[in-house]
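To start, one record:
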Amino acid sequence: MKYDLIVIGAGSGGVRAARIASVHGAKVAIVENNRFGGTCVNVGCVPKKLYYYLSQLNKDIENYKSYGWSIPKASLNWKLFMKKKDQEISRLNKIYEGILNRNKIDIINGTAQFLSSQKIKVGKKSYQAKKFIISTGGKPRIPNISENSKLVNTSDDIFSLKKLPKRMVIEGGGYIAIEFAFIFANLGVKVNLVYRGKQILKSFDSEIVDFLIQSTPKGKIKYHLESKIQKVNKSKNELIVNLSNRKKISTDYILSAIGRIANTENLGLENTNIQLNENKSIKVNRHFQTNDSNIYAVGDVIDYVNLTPVAIRQGHFLADKLFNNKKTIEYDFANIPTAVFTSPQIGTVGLTLEMAKKNKIDAYELTTNFKSMKKSFSKTNKDTFYKLVIDKKDKTIIGIHIISDEAAELIQLLAVNVVARNTLDEFRKTVAVHPTSSEEIITI
């Protein structure tokens, strides 16, 4: 059978591309060898956020005790939580499948392999299409550990955790490692974080990262920087982690969260003209086109900005471009807001001051930090930090970087100001809402 479009991978980007192409009248098929929804729904953003919500209770209880509440010690039924988490993901899997069915997109179950630039096979059947979109996402990077690497779990495995451990070693310094470090620390797990670099979250504003570390309650997370796991030994009741700096850590569970790599193996790309980057991601131009003129790629498999909303926008843009005669929607991929679900959360959009200097922009910062009103009675450190990066020339806000318990929600709306190129004057003439923490960024 011949299609106008075959999408390989039913994650967020692939499903969006397939749906929009079908809306424009294209005959579309989508190939998937796993559950619908991709990394985000199954082993990424969604279950991670459920873990995050679960982890906040102990933190909130401690704060509200300072108000005068007498709260008995809470107990967690981990098996019940995991059951509910799995039910929610199954519900979302069905929603994605429903989207495809309602839009009359043929679903092909299995693994796609290119036979040529115009043909793929799935199992014993072959399929042809005028256009292909590869959206196979990514997979966890496997750690290079000399001994007993099978005792080390990946960020996919963590969502099948049978019971909550008392101790955990996490290796990594990016989003995934840091989020899980805070999640499990807030669940009462003793966390040791191992990272080969000098600073966690190295692409983020360094002052924001320092503030996050300083605002972490003492003893919740122990950082081992400029180090990595070399080997793991198993004793009767525990695991012994040997670090490159010769330190040893006793633990019950080891999580490797050292990044993800593009899922390009076993696709038969050698039968096409597609070229790969050094990290095995697919090389595309600014319109997401590969070296084969009829094959495109979106999402984590191109390793551009590996975020679900980015993949969705890429898929939508591409489907419009290929199958809609009208003008496609232009997206701002330069100022992408993002959040890190630590405690407190980090939200960021646009340039840091250091990035501005590298781009030869004469800029300056305005900052404020304080303890939120919600924590008035607690003995915690300051928990809120706001920073604006401003172009000196015209007072345009070119970056916003924040830490607060609501940073993820705030940064979504604050990002509009950066994309719209609003100025500091427009912040200043906006009336603040009082009493809120967010008013401080208006009156900064």
